[in-house]
Amino acid sequence: MAKKKLLIVESPAKAGTIKKYLGKDYSVMASMGHVIDLPKSQLGVDVEHHFEPKYITIRGKGELLTKLKKEAKSADEIYLATDPDREGEAISWHLANALKIDTDSNCRVTFNEITKTAVKAAIKEPRRIDMDLVNAQQLRRILDRIVGYKISPILWEKVKKGLSAGRVQSVATRLICDREEEIMNFTPKEYWSVEALLRDPKSKKEFPAKYYGPVGGKEAALSAGAEADAIIAAVKEAEFTVTNVKRGEVSKNPPPPFTTSTMQQDASRKIGFSALKTMQTAQTLYEGINLGGKLGTVGLITYMRTDSLRIAAEAQQEALEFIQAEYGAAFAHRRQYKAKKNAQDAHEAIRPTSVSIKPSEIKDHLTNDQYKLYKLIWERFVACQMAAAVYNTISANIEANGHTFRASGSSLKFKGFMTVYTEGRDEKEKEKDKMLPDLQEQQRVDLKNIEGKQHFTQPPPRFTEATLVRELEENGIGRPSTYAPTISTIIARGYVVRSKKQLVPTELGFVTTDIMKQNFKDIVDVEFTAEMEEELDEVEEGKRHWVQVLEEFYPPFEENLEKAKKEIEKIQIKDEESDVVCEKCGRKMVYKLSKFGKFLACPGYPECKNTKSIREGTGVECPKCGGEILVKKSRKGKVYYGCEHAPKCDFMAWDAPVKGRKCPKCGGPLFEKKGRGKKIFCMKEGCGYEERNNEG
């Protein structure tokens, strides 16, 4: 009689995928994430006795745990196949204790991708639970709990109810606040450039050349318009002679495959995903998608929480063979990438489980979001095993009356990896050829025009989600799994708001950060937080004991706590007043923030509980009834446009109305479709007017 086997994973979607691979001898159940954790109602850590954690069954998980225990009792073999990281290891440890599984037995199973081959191979090689990984998770959890539960009540008392502090979120908020202060304190400096438009007499081609400096001298910086005017006056009537021409080739290598951080950054730049949306979508691709037919349910990508750049040999070989067959041998180039010093190399980089599953061929089985992200991951991985792109380059020095001008150009000679992929930051720089005419040394060129241009130095840009993720990673703050929830938390708490993709600190963010800087310097110190991450890594590697780290951290932290309780004065943050008068009591309403965004509330609460949503007009008439089209948000926070007379008028559109223009055909309002298929068009029934921008 066959043995009855139980495999426990984290999510039902993953359970469904794996069950199909393992057959009838296996029962596959999901723990739905953590089953056991610290209690929400109290600190749950005994700081007097070696930081002993008090673990309880999470509220609402009792029934599930009873089912798991019942199934475990009747199973001959039990395997714990939670996610292959610190959190997953801790979940397996808690499950082993709850289900009375010997933690020294070979009960732990991990796989980097959910494919039939990977799952079956992993089942054949179970291992013991890695207590170093578990202890690293316990340390992180207890540190975060102590910081959050000890500082947050002080913020509630002194500033505002509902605030919170956190080991990573407070540093992230500080980075955004510090950047905003840099911007506010920035003093622009004036500088000038001089640009000549020249013409090659032979080819009749015109090309720009920028002023470099005096002949034989160093590059000159022009700080005033008078300097630019003097140069223009000196060369306006002079002969322009080409004195030096350099021709060459430049190679551009492909970027490495995705890590969690780079995937979040590129998804933000290229497809407009928030870090949270990227991770949620990646999770579904990892857990498995039903592709129908012979393929059935397949995990499409490898594990998506990783900072490793390692690629499995078989995956690399498959990619190289695919590239040779699809694009030709000249496009394939075997590459291995080196991860950063502190990278956890337990997993591979993020890649498709099989490059033969092309995005275009499975599009019908994916949601729009899944397709966009899978395409991005697939293209990045294929590109990383391709040849470099090659550019022909030319640069020329051109002299006129003792002054040097420089011109340069390039053209794409061999597309290489760019056949498949270009990085998000390169999107705005369209790959157009900018080649100079075939200039020869000592030839003359004609001056067609010359002008000076005034410029001002710019302040550093505000953080976007992509640049904040990069900053956190470069400073060693947090881990791949923490970036998305950190950004979501600081927005939900009202410390930061999103404004046209930028992260802007609120007054609340500034006040809270100032309190943290003055009273809990270490908690918001970038270097201290990075050092703490290194200590977590040392515990994971078995080099340090987790309790020892807490024993070093807690005494100075407790001292600061007691001092802060006495010294921080109560801060009153005034709500921003609006021009809207409360129709119930006559007071001017104020702006409040909830997890759904800004709304208006009466300041007379609790006597007057009147609230209103904020009306954001577009100044454009509704094509159905003539009312004003308003900017609205769906339940999921997506912006759309609807009539002010809804629900009487059912007009709605995802595309933005164009203010100040009317349809030349019917006089109705125009709308702008962005992204692919960009166009301006009329929505009035039977009109059909549209105009497209065919540039690039």
From TrEMBL:
Presence of the UniProt keyword Transferase in the record: no
Statement: the UniProt record of this protein carries the keyword DNA-binding? yes
Which NCBIfam families does the UniProt entry name for this protein? topA_bact
Under InterPro entries, the record lists: Topo_IA (IPR000380), Topo_IA_2 (IPR003601), Topo_IA_cen (IPR013497), Topo_IA_cen_sub1 (IPR013824), Topo_IA_cen_sub2 (IPR013825), Topo_IA_cen_sub3 (IPR013826), Topo_IA_core_domain (IPR023405), Topo_IA_DNA-bd_dom (IPR003602)
Q: What is this protein called?
A: DNA topoisomerase 1
Q: Which Gene3D superfamilies match?
A: 3.40.50.140, Bacterial Topoisomerase I, domain 1, Topoisomerase I, domain 2, Topoisomerase I, domain 3, Topoisomerase I, domain 4
SUPFAM superfamilies referenced in this protein's UniProt entry, alphabetically: Prokaryotic type I DNA topoisomerase (SSF56712), Zinc beta-ribbon (SSF57783)
Per UniProt, residues of the Toprim domain are: 4-114
Report the residue ranges that make up the Topo IA-type catalytic domain in this protein.
130-561
The segment annotated Interaction with DNA runs over 164-169
Q: Which domain of life is it from?
A: Bacteria
Q: Which reaction does it catalyse?
A: ATP-independent breakage of single-stranded DNA, followed by passage and rejoining
The EC number of this protein is 5.6.2.1
Q: Can you cite a GO biological process for this protein?
A: DNA topological change
Keywords, comma-separated and alphabetical: DNA-binding, Isomerase, Magnesium, Metal-binding, Topoisomerase, Zinc, Zinc-finger
Instruction: State how it assembles.
Output: Monomer.
Cellular component aspect of the GO annotation? chromosome
